[in-house]
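Sharing a chain and its predicted structure for anyone who wants a worked example. Both blocks are below, sequence first, tokens second.
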Amino acid sequence: MFGYAPLPVFDPLAGTVVLAPEKDEEGYWAGSPGVLHDGERFWLTYRRRRPRGERAERGWWCAVAVSDDGVEFTDVWSVHKDELKTSSMERFRLTRADDGGFRLYVSYVDPADSRWRIDALAAGHPSEFDLGTAAPVLTAASTGTEGVKDPYALRAGPVTYLFASYAEPRPDLDPGAHATADVYNVGATTHPTGLATSLDDGATFTWQGRVLDVGTGWDRYQARLNSVVPIPGGAGYVGFYDGSASHEENYEERCGIAVSSDLFTWRRLSGERPWVTSPHRGGSVRYLDALLIEDRWWLYYEMTRADGAHELRVIRVPPRP
């Protein structure tokens, strides 16, 4: 059994369904959760996806929703992929700003070069985000990569740490690798996690490079940090990451766990096998976002169902004694 001691391995089937897919069919997903708890309410960012070949295919819809209980959510803002002129969107991340407002990091395929990128929006309230004010945060050009996506932001002292999955540059990369507008799905390069830091409340970032490399086994193709939680007592941080062994598992990543003392160097606790998996299909439990609220873990995750669709669930578990 793997895991950070105060957090037991959990059964993903025991979680409560927060969002179901549009259809009970393979290729329809509700997931990519990002969760913020502001002390009173829960704020959820999520994505809906359709199979390739369908109208408005791939990641076509992302939204911000609010809840009093962390289970029943109501949308307050949303975006269709056509508003960004993109072929697909993926994970968003909502944070609080120093001025009392909110900042939203959005992840989508750049229509100019078919590479993934991350922009940011700022507003006094999540219902007020205006795409016309979007500012670039991380791009393929600014990071020296083949694309960057799936942001997770964490504030520690005066620094905002932004973790993101990226496509490792290859000198001999075939230009056709971006023809599908998703280099993650063609096996042309690997996909570790990189880190960018900000000293101005998360408005602009300096790219620091790789912090969690791909592994040598089940996670040798991708290792994507999805959430980072300070360990109680100031002993460091625990992180939850998605891993896959090849591009054939690109949509069926499984969950691993790692720890760090400084957010720059990470040590896997699940190097031999995933920490948590679904019993269905490819076993995917991915995009796990963890909150520790009043000594109870709230774990939000996207998981594969028996019919091949993906749904978003939450489970609340006490710390291990």
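Comments welcome. Helices lie at 140-143.
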